[in-house]
Amino acid sequence: MFIDSHCHINFPELAARMPEILARMADNKVTHALCVSVDLPDFPQVLALAHEYPHIYASVGVHPDYEDTPEPSVEQLVELANDPKIIAIGETGLDYFRLQGDLEWQRERFRTHIKASRITRKPLIIHTRNASEDTIRIMREEGAGTEAGGVAGVMHCFTESLEVARAAIEMGFYISFSGIVTFKSAKDLQAVALEVPLERILIETDSPYLAPMPHRGKMNEPGFVAHVGEYIAKLKGVPVEQVAEQTTANFFKLFNVAA
Ligand SMILES: [Zn+2]
Ligand SMILES: [Zn+2]
Questions:
Q1: Cα of 27 to ligand 2 centre, how many Å?
Q2: Could you give the CA distance from residue 39 to residue 92 in angstroms, rounded to a whole number?
Q3: Is there a contact between 32 and 57 (Cβ–Cβ < 8 Å)?
Q4: Is the pTM here over 0.85, yes or no?
Q5: Given a cut of 80, is residue 259 above it in pLDDT?
Q6: What is the C-alpha end-to-end distance of the chain, expressed in Å?
Q7: CA–CA separation, 76 vs 62, rounded Å?
Q8: Are 1 and 222 in contact (CB under 8 A)?
Q9: DSSP three-state, residue 33
Q10: 124-135: per-residue pLDDT in tens?
């Protein structure tokens, strides 16, 4: 069994195909999925999916790429997270690739999420792109991670260096690999995945984006996370069952939910 630790099945292109998506999850032995919130206006739909389906979990947060969207307060995030199906805070983080200029608001928003995670004791889902130094610095400053008395989380859709992965792992974080790791061009990322211990790995689709091989270029969906798991097994030279079992156990441990 596999778990898709990060998807956006509330997005209209996927939400319109739910029966098909759930059937493919079952076919590919993908038992659970975490539907990740990207802004407050969409949050009710994310929560509704988690309430409708026992094997769908959800998070609450505002994505760093969303500029013109209501800014969440710590209190608001804490309040919205107060539901047993909300198992994480995010996605949050920094993205200096999509947006440029004065991004102090992005850093402030990130700090808000870390504070909410510390209060709720729900792990962080962190998105970082072209901003790893500031990401790690702010995580340390705000006390993210088990060492600092906070809770851990996951560096999602990881595409950074081994050094960044190690810094996050030291803080108690997990590293989540998406379909990108299966791309022929992703040699550097494959080298990182080879070094990250299986005990620290999660797998995800980030669907509807980034479909793994052999579906690259098509619309992604949670069932395809099986391909990411299979690829990592091949890369590490271990049985696929081992990757499935370990990444599933990692998910339940990090997000503190019963298997
Ligand atoms: Zn992301
Ligand atoms: Zn995402």
A1: 24
A2: 10
A3: yes
A4: yes
A5: no
A6: 11
A7: 11
A8: no
A9: strand
A10: 999 999 999 999
- Residue for token pair 């983080």: 93
Q: What's the gap in Å between 125 CA and the centre of ligand 2?
A: 9
The predicted-structure confidence for 12-48, as pLDDT tens digits, reads as follows: 999 999 999 999 999 999 999 999 999 999 999 999 9
Judged by its nearest atom, the ligand closest to the C-alpha of residue 59 is 2
Confidence of residue 245 (pLDDT cuts 50, 70, 90): very high
Q: What would you measure as the largest C-alpha separation in the chain, in angstroms? A: 47
CA of 28 to the centre of ligand 1 (A): 24
State whether residue 2 is helix, strand or coil: strand
- 176 CA to centre of ligand 1 in angstroms: 11
Residue entry with tokens 């980030």: 206
Tokens of 169: 């792992």
Within its chain, how far is the Cα of 182 from the centroid? Answer: 17
User: Which two three-digit tokens encode residue 186?
Assistant: 């992703």
Percent of the chain scored above 70 by pLDDT?
100
